[in-house]
Amino acid sequence: MADVPFRFRSDDVVADPAVTVDAFAAQTNATAVRIEPGEDARALLPFLDRLRLVEVNFPTFTDGRGFSAARVLREAGYTGELRAVGDIGVDQLSHLRRCGFDAIAPSAELDPAEAATAFAVWPEVYQATGDGRPPIWALRHTAGRGK
Asked: Where in the chain are the domains?
């Protein structure tokens, strides 16, 4: 199991070994899958009810395809653990969480103080996404009501 230094869930850490997307459909008892760059997260949509963990691999810092995979899964209703793994830098942390990742396991240790700052950098956001924070435009349009 990957070390998960940043986790935003209160349930138990999923320790099941993750299988590849190709192997997942053939393993009726698999509850964890790992998406590699270039694999289509939509292949998992029929199986969301049995998945406890989806790991999304970021093999290089510049490969952002995993952000899209997270959005696809969360928008389709996936509620299990969504874990980003790999070459993840501090400046990606808030965006990972914003796209719906609720666990982050970088391949290199990150400074906890820098990570805390990164998670707090954007208190207001502009788009609705996977972390549940309302976009600032929605707050602006409801702020004057009820007075």
From this structure: 6-143
pTM: 0.81
For residue 144, name the pLDDT band (cuts at 50, 70, 90). low
What architecture does CATH give domain 6-143? 3-Layer(aba) Sandwich (3.40)
Contact assessment for residue 105 and residue 10, using Cβ atoms and an 8 Å cutoff: no
* Number of residues that make up the chain: 147
- Pairing mode, strands 103-106 and 81-86: parallel
